[in-house]
Amino acid sequence: MSTGSTAVGSDAGRIWRAARVPLAIAFVVVMVGVVTALVRGGEDADALDPQSPAPNGTRALAQILAVEGVSSELLYGFDDALAASPDATVVVSAPATVGAERIADLAASAQRLVLIAPSDEVLTALDAGVVTSGYDRVAPREPGCENRDAGAAQRAVTGGYLFEPDEPEGRVDVCYEGSLVVVNGDVVLLGAGDLLMNRNLGEQGNAALAMRLLGSSESVVWYLPTAGDPALSDGNQSLFALIPNGWKFGAIQLGIAALFLALWRARRLGPVVVEPLPVVVHAAETTEGRARLYRRTSDRAHAADALRAAARARIARALAAPGTDPGVNGDALVDSVAQHARVGSGAVRATLFGPAPQSDGELVQLAEDLDDLEKRIMERHQEGITT
Question: Taking every annotated instance into account, which residue ranges of this chain make up the domain DUF4350 (predicted)?
């Protein structure tokens, strides 16, 4: 009893020693991912918020606009944003979350609509005449266009999604290598919101460009969509679109960490080692298993070959005659069997070297013929020994 308990205890200890390092690594990875997701989720909550002094907020821009007589209003509901949009500049932080049809409604109502990283679906609904062409890091860029606002601001820090016209002669101004597009003067597409944020407003011509893009009306409506907005809960959005970006980033990090952990553990396993198992498999079980396999695949030819080869080998040993070599035509064995069994050589050849059976019945008949022929040989062989 004590021996069994000791064995169980040693096994548990060995398993724990082998698993504690991977478990510790997995725990650390999970905690890092959770903390990262929470931190980034908090940052996302302040993104483009005109009341937030955080690096990704827009309080500095709102204060500059206020000095120029342009008020700022923060709204989280679509219905409120639509009601406040007439004669106002509406900034939408996540157009894909709002949906293409609602964005089109805002464009029709607002004096100017500023979209941050709009999707191709939104661009199509607006008939903007541009499509997404890629993504690039946020960096200083030259205007490279004839737009008056961009020309006045000159060099600015922009980036994110890039856009290009889908028509040879479009009605759009594509500036800053495609990271800023102005459609008909009343719809502004930004590849990313970094241009407007507190951390970048003092760089290059960002402040001048942001002022000119948002200061053309008497008020700016900052519409930051939220998952709790009743107007957006009509089933048109996917669940993925409502997940905060911080949680998505954390999930991606966890996936990458899990992949590296799996690769690391796989390298430690080493090559497969073949070792004999302490199990005895009886010959009868092997024969039955092979027979079932032949039957399942209807492979009568191989089954017949196996029966004939085994019968020829036993008969040849009993008669001390050649014929077990597959390369031999078996004439000597056929003649010897025909002589001892007193059976015609044609019948012997058909039994030992004939064609494959075409049905299960023919296979059973072949097995009986082989057994009968072998019994005849053994009986004659025993008679010869006794006499």
Answer: 50-214
